[in-house]
Amino acid sequence: MLRIPLTILALFLALATAYAQDIQLGASIQLTGPEANIGRYYRDGYELAVDRINAQGGVKVGGQAHKLALKILDNQSDVNLCVRQYVQLVTQDKINLLLGSYASNYVLASSSVAEKYEVPMLQGGGASDQIFSRGYKYIFGLLPVASQYFGSTVDMMTRLNPAPKTVALLYADDAFDTAVAAGTRKDIAAAGLTAAIDERYSNNASDFSTLLARIKSARPDAVLVAGHETEVLNFIRQSKSLDVNAKLSAFTVGVQSADFRKSLGGDADYGYGMTPWLPLASAKDAAFGDAGKFAADYKARFGYEADYHGAAAAAVVQAFAKALEKAGSTDPKAVRNAIAKLDFESQYGRIRFSDTGQISLPQTVVQVQKGELVAVFGSNGFLVKPQYPTPEWKQR
Amino acid sequence: MMRAAIWAVVLAAAAAVPWLATPTVIQFGINALFLAALAQAWNIIGGYTGYPSFGNSVFYGLGSYGTAVAMVQFDWPFPVGLALGALIAVAFAVLLGLPVLRLRGHYFAIATLGLALVMTAIVSNLPIAGSNIGLVLPLHRGDALFYELALGLLAAATFTVAWIGKSRFGYALIAIREDEDAAGSIGVNTTLYKVAAFALAGFFSALVGGIHAYWITFIDPESSFDITINVKMIIMAVFGGPGSVLGPIVGALLLSGISEVLASEISTLAALFFGIVIVVAVVLMPRGLAHVARWFPAVGWRYFGANIRANKL
Amino acid sequence: MALFGQVLVNGILLGGLYALMALGLALVWGVLNIVNLAHGAFIMLGAYVAFYLFTLLHLDPILALPVAMAVLFALGYGVQRGILGLIIRGPMFNTLLITFGLDVVFTYLAQIAFSADFRTLNPGYAGANVLVAGVTLPLVNILAGGIAVALTVAVWLMLGYSRLGRAIRAASQNLTAARLYGVEPRSVYALTFGLGAGLAGAAGDLYGLVSQINPYIGATLTAKCFVISIIGGLDSALGVIAGGGILGIVEALTTLYIGPTYRDVVSFGLLVVVLIVRPSGLLGRTT
């Protein structure tokens, strides 16, 4: 009498447990507003990784295969909205794990949400030291420490011939670039170089003519600029039209992006930058094969070239997947502890976090040579001979 | 007596929300209450006195920074920080109000806009305020505190506006709004009343800023002195009905609701929609919802056409 | 000394472009009493017109000036007749609100249409410069400054001596009397607003040569234009040139002697101080 309903109930229960819930990943990204041109790297990197992992069978948690689901909200480049959206993701949209936003000030603000609700947030968008100095347990970062950004560049400078002796250091006044400058100042002093100019400029500045006039007057051998893409673009264009020359010019952003190089044309040549990621076949990866294949897949799907922003974003998802598998559950605390113990190789490099939650990756110095990005200096010294010194504008 | 009882019930119901609703609703509520309080504050100087201030965001920002600097740099408790923020804002309102309130109309609006821009630039150069990097406040778990504070602040601001409407102070402000020169010639000390209204608006704006700063745990010059906050204040007060007691609250709740729904569903178009709403509202209902509510039942759809005919070139 | 000279000249050249940017705003404000918070958006749109003409049709930005001006003129004319004209006799800050709303709409439509990526106008001569007495003068800055001054003088002449100019000035002084003389207010207002927008379009075209463009540059540019208009006074086109020059020099010297991050403190501080002390502007007539 009871056998049929019981069988049905048992079948139903069996099906219910067999039907695995999707694991919800959520992020609030700048898809519109002034930071949207970099924000899109994060949306696209997250999507690519989620789709690839799902295509390969999803994430195995405690013997069950789960698919990843992605919800992305547009914070319109508004920090306050970003924070509110993360709260919404955690409380209303029932997101299991948080993917970070772009830019240190957004990460600084939104990481408090992760800490408040005790949901882990993994991000590849904020590098400022401040993010990791508050003793928070639920925030992890895939971008190397800001203060070390120019470390390898300064190292390279000491090995060039003739070595630069004087440096001009310019930096925007936001969290990330100020942190870069603080570290670079120490590196410059340690290397025995002199900072002829050490100047902070306003975020989003469009006119560098006075600073460039000072540089021209002081004649430093090298110029280091920590800023944003639009600022670096204006800086380079205006240094050409004001005929300001230096033997070496290095930038934290801009030269790494193909769009940037294209919009400057030949003027981007000889410029140096740094990147924690390169699309090399030697960086093997379980989901994508290697970094080169990742870059090719990225370009094929989205129509523009990936840079370290997109690679970091994909790595965020990959790290979460690995942590979920290791934790064997979707419980936020368990996943958080698993993330802290991660150590694996990926297209983005070796993923392993310090006690404060930040990754440690060496920055490779790159140079734009004839429009292409070439890796010139790594942790083991010169990879390719850099085109040094930079010829004067009038002779190019 | 009945009305007071009804309001008491409404207030009690609103205060009970943190224990009844989901965290997202609470968060939306906090945000909407903040904006409503700001709109009420603007109402005092813009709606009743007729001086369209684009500088309330200065006081909001000063409140945020006063609270943040006190808590972060000196380790003082939150109430002390809040009081400091309010004090600084009122001081600035008096100091800056005296020269700036001598201007009228557009010039006053642009001058206050300029004040907001100068403040942003000055604060981004002050190391004690964290320069352009901003400050990170200590984390407080539990949104109920912020919700109740915001609700209490809105109630206080609304009571103040209601009192203004019936007091001599309020009559003086309205007289200034309607015809300042005439008011002056019959012996109203226009400077005193204007500056007092400015300071009162600044006081409430600063308190909102301070509570908001503690809630969101991170402030920087760009987001604290953001002109868009001021514009939102104005839109909500004007949309609801400037110079009325409940208009700003209605305007704020309605617009916040629409904006929040958009931001969570079709977020990319939300900002665009916000702009369109402003344009349409100013063209069709420049006197606010309160006015619509009173006249639409009598006049019908012709109300909107009449508005346009009255205001067009 | 060479450094000072270079910085000063940079400031003056930039000032010419600043003046052109502010001219449209000052004209509309001074004549129609409309404060257009969307002015920066017009500049941005002018820059995009020039960008697409350059990228798709290879039309040199200088030659594209008339086109950019015409397109923005049409837009401004339409906005005035279709939207602003409907609220103009209402409370004054309604124009502030509605132009703010329009600014938001234009910015986000631009983002949807053109994407958030920044663009540059890079004709072959973009990096060229001449060396005069130890001072390097970028060619595009000279061009931008020179064209800006020429356009400003043209507008000043038009306002002072042409029939349309007289109609515009009459309408601004006394609309009723002007109507008695046959001035049709709606078209005069729309023409003036359109002219203001057209000048903004030209400024945007030239701005694209010295800086990068993206949909969000409008807000900062509007703020700068306010400073220039207030300093120079709303009564005179020539005053705007002086205002632009003063701002350019002040910004350059502040950056040199005080620090780059203090530039906005000084320029907006100047705005507030001038408004308080002499609202008609440094060069305007005190009424």
What would your notes on this structure say?
The complex is a heterotrimer of chains A (396), B (313) and C (287). With 396 residues, chain A is α/β, with parallel strands linked by helices. Chain A contains 12 helices and 19 strands. In chain A, strands 4-1-5-6-7 form a 5-stranded parallel sheet, sandwiched between helices. Chain A has a 4-stranded parallel sheet with strand order 9-8-10-11, sandwiched between helices. A 4-stranded antiparallel sheet of chain A has the order 12-17-18-19, covered by helices on one side. Chain A is elongated, with a radius of gyration of 23 Å. The N and C termini of chain A lie far apart (92 Å). The model of chain A has no long low-confidence stretch (mean pLDDT 90). Chain B has one domain. Chain B is built from 15 helices and 2 strands. In chain B, helix 3 packs antiparallel against helix 4 (78-100). The mean pLDDT of chain B is 88. In chain C, helix 2 crosses helix 3 (61-82) and helix 5 (139-161) packs across helix 6 (163-173). Chain C has 11 helices and 2 strands, in the order H-H-H-H-E-E-H-H-H-H-H-H-H. The model of chain C has no long low-confidence stretch (mean pLDDT 89). The longest helix of chain C has 31 residues, at 2-32. Chain C is mainly alpha-helical and 287 residues long. Chain C is 74% helix and 3% strand. The radius of gyration of chain C is 19 Å and the shape is globular. The interface between B and C is large, with 46 and 46 residues.
